[in-house]
């Protein structure tokens, strides 16, 4: 009888071990499934954020380009304004220097202008 009881005890222990292993395996699979779902959720969220960022960049890009063009145009306008006074000064200086030059007929018969230092 003692052997029978021991055998029953062993069978009970083995059955209990199988139940524990089965429960542990089920828990492990549940954890893996949960982890996989969480990773997919994170991937979806990141993809959505990336798409929103790209959409925002596409919407903002024309405005930025327009602003850059306007800034370049302003710089060109400022450069033109800065150049205009210089042109006036050059015109003034050329009129003054032309008064100082002297027209003379050269050896070959052509008229040439001489600077002030060659004046008689």
From TrEMBL:
Protein name according to UniProt: Uncharacterized protein
Species for this entry: Periconia macrospinosa
Region Disordered: start-end pairs: 1-120
Extent of Basic and acidic residues compositional bias: 1-60, 68-80
């Amino acid at each position: 009888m003692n052997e029978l009881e021991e055998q029953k005890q062993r069978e009970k222990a083995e059955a209990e071990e199988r139940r524990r292993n089965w429960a542990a395996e089920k828990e492990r699979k549940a954890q893996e499934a949960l982890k996989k779902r969480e990773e997919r959720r994170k991937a979806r969220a990141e993809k959505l954020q990336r798409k929103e960022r790209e959409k925002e960049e596409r919407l903002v890009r024309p405005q930025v380009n327009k602003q850059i063009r306007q800034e370049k145009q302003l710089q060109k306008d400022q450069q033109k304004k800065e150049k205009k006074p210089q042109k006036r000064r050059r015109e003034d200086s050329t009129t003054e220097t032309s008064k100082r030059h002297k027209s003379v007929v050269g050896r070959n018969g052509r008229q040439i202008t001489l600077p002030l230092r060659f004046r008689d």
